[in-house]
Task: inverse folding
């Protein structure tokens, strides 16, 4: 069966590389991925998948499905295809979406014998307002038995954890006045923002080490001789689990309210991006993926274990169904994500070859779970334990 899956992926390898290169050469920001989503949908429709588009009023989101005549589990392969401002595909999403689509098509070559349903989820805007958040909230993963994706990187890493995250905006409204002629008549909104930053810095000593708070001033006034009547800041507040993150957010909110009281400003608080939960990696799924990498020629010693200090909208999916997010090596040099160097290396022949290897590993992993009731039961049992236990960093 796996030989048939691998052969099916190899048979279309040139097409997959062409699609990945095209998306890489035409970067599009989140929720504007018209070209990328269209190429992926055309590919999946041409290979016998039913298509739903748009999804939840998201024009560049889709769900492609193939159901075999024989009943069985449902697997989800996840596609990300948004690019970064000014950097293009410096996170390798052109590889992620293509490897997931290729894995789904490869698995389809045997699914009628195995039994089950294959879905490919096109999930826009992972870098900002990740579509997996509203998709999860709407229950679109609730009937999925397990979800798979892999991320390009400079090393092989097992699926680990990520940080829960809230994106919070603080806007202060004061009163403008001439800063020299009549400063006593002003209410300085920028002072409130600066007080907020000082208060956040004072909190850091009392926070657990897995916490991250980082922010910017998005508006600090218009001219030095005018007391700012409006100022704003945006913060990412992260930690190793959702309950602790919620508590830290409350501390920051109190600090923001204190700054408003001290300066006499009016405060408005909003979330400017979706909130992400931490990733709950499913260990039986993760070990199965690593075993398949090894079967494809990757050395066991080359597969590392690490903790992801970023935040993923996939975390929200992992609370709805068993999920993994491993990293796959696409380059020999160590270049970091979200850099021009990584972007350039992600467009090389070596990167495209690694993309195809990852597609096979994803498809093989799906086959293993769908063909083994015992493994599927282990995956489900691990998931149920994870979501029922209190979150710990």
Result:
């Amino acid at each position: 069966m796996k030989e048939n899956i691998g052969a099916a992926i190899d048979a279309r390898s040139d097409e997959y590389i062409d699609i990945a290169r095209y998306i890489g050469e035409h970067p599009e920001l989140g929720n504007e991925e018209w070209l990328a989503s269209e190429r992926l949908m055309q590919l999946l429709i041409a290979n016998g998948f039913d298509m739903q588009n748009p999804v939840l009023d998201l024009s560049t989101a889709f769900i492609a499905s193939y159901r075999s005549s024989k009943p069985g589990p449902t697997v989800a392969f996840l596609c990300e295809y948004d690019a970064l401002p000014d950097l293009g595909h410096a996170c390798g999403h052109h590889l992620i979406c293509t490897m997931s689509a290729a894995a789904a098509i490869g698995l389809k070559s045997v699914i009628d014998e195995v039994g089950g349903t294959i879905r490919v989820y096109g999930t826009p805007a992972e870098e900002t307002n990740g579509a997996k958040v509203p998709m999860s909230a709407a229950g679109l993963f609730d009937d999925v038995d397990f979800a798979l994706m892999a991320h390009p990187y400079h090393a092989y890493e097992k699926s680990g954890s990520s940080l829960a995250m809230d994106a919070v905006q603080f806007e202060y409204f004061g009163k403008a006045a001439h800063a020299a002629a009549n400063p006593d008549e002003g209410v300085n909104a920028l002072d409130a923002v600066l007080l907020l930053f000082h208060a956040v810095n004072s909190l850091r000593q009392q926070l657990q080490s897995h916490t991250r708070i980082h922010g910017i001033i998005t508006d600090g006034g218009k001219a030095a001789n005018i007391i700012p009547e409006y100022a704003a800041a945006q913060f990412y507040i992260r930690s190793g689990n959702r309950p602790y993150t919620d508590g830290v957010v409350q501390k920051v909110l109190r600090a923001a309210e204190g700054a408003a009281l001290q300066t006499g400003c009016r405060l408005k608080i909003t979330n400017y991006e979706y909130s992400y939960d931490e990733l709950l990696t499913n260990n039986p799924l993760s070990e199965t993926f690593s075993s398949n990498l090894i079967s494809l020629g990757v050395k066991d010693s080359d597969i590392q274990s690490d903790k992801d200090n970023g935040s993923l909208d996939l975390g929200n999916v992992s609370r709805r169904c068993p999920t993994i997010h491993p990293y796959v090596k696409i380059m020999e040099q160590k270049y970091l994500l979200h850099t021009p160097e990584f972007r350039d290396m992600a467009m090389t022949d070596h990167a495209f070859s690694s993309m195809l290897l990852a597609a096979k590993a994803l498809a093989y992993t799906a086959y293993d779970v769908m063909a083994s009731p015992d493994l599927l039961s282990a995956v489900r049992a691990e998931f149920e334990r994870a979501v029922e236990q209190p979150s710990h960093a």
